[in-house]
Amino acid sequence: MSVKRILVTGGAGFIGSHLTEKLLYDGHRVLVVDNFSAGDPDNIRQLFNRPGFKLSRADIRDRSAISRAMQNIDVVYHLAAQIHIDRSIMDPVETIDINVNGTLSVLDAAVQNDVEKVVLASTSEVYGTALRAPIDEDHPLNASSPYAASKVAADRLAYSYWKTYGLKAYIMRTFNTFGPRQKSSGYGGVISIFMERVAAGLPPVIYGDGMQTRDYLYIADSIEAYSLVLNAPDTVAGQPINIGTGKENTILDIALKISKLLGRPDLKPVHIEPRPGEVRRLVASTALAREKLGFSPHYDIDRGLAEYLKWFPSHGLRQWAKSG
């Protein structure tokens, strides 16, 4: 395996920090670009003195900074984004600016610097509520929030740069990833939110009836999928690929599993009014990921929750203390 010079935008975030660790472990040289508006320096602090690691504090919308950072880079993993649906509803302008203009900045710099490939972190939210299940990559894109719409735009921008400029763009439509370092805020981190509440002796709070479904992907599987793209053939470029498990769980079921896992089955979920912009059903068709990347998840929801719980007592509760 040849050593690559890799840039990871959002490399101090939840998925980005795990990916950076994996790439360094595999012997690659990694430059993390993060402005720490969402990323946490603690996520990558253990890497500061690691051979092959560099850090640049920059905003992806700063075109000159991104272009400079991308000099002599072979591969870009673009994970930096404003990921919160609720925040996008309150401030759609900022979300569009970060997720669309920021992605444009990254793609343009990649073309200017003759980068070999760009791997874009897209999302299952681009599909909206499933019209058919499991959701394949040809499913209509029915964004139901400004966040989702911004990711549709970023997703299609990457495709357009492949078609127009020949940039090898690999589009990863990742489903609901969970695990260590995930922040318990917004719509996406429901598992970490439930864990923190139950650990603090509080019942899980569910918006609506809890029958919404999600395809929950443990972080180790997500990172394996991203790693596999590094050696994916050129023929995969431009083709969106779902990264999920192909299994769905209701939000209610997740709440009950977590209460039981933490030894508090008495903490029954509390239901409140549904939230705007929330999709009803998401579950991935994983056929293309198996065919094109050789990816198959190793963690089902129960194994993933058990692994998460090994990390949670010494870290997740510390996060609860900071935020609560």
List keywords for this structure.
single chain; 324 residues; alpha/beta; Rossmann fold; UDP-galactose 4-epimerase, domain 1; 7-stranded parallel β-sheet; two-stranded parallel ribbon; 13 strands; globular
Outline the fold blueprint.
Layout: E1 5-9, H1 14-25, E2 29-34, E3 53-57, H2 63-69, E4 75-78, H3 85-90, H4 92-112, E5 117-123, H5 146-165, E6 169-174, E7 176-178, H6 190-199, E8 205-207, E9 213-214, E10 216-218, H7 219-229, E11 241-243, E12 249-250, H8 251-261, E13 270-272, H9 287-293, H10 301-323
Parallel strand pairs: 1-2, 1-4, 2-3, 4-5, 5-6, 6-11, 7-10, 8-13
Antiparallel strand pairs: 9-12
Helix pairs in contact: 1-7, 2-4, 4-5, 6-8, 6-10
Walkthrough of the structure:
This protein is an alpha/beta fold and 324 residues long. 40% of the residues lie in helices and 16% in strands. It has ten helices and 13 strands. Strand 1 (5-9), helix 1 (14-25) and strand 2 form a beta-alpha-beta unit. The chain is globular, with a radius of gyration of 19 Å. Mean pLDDT is 94; it is low at 318-324.
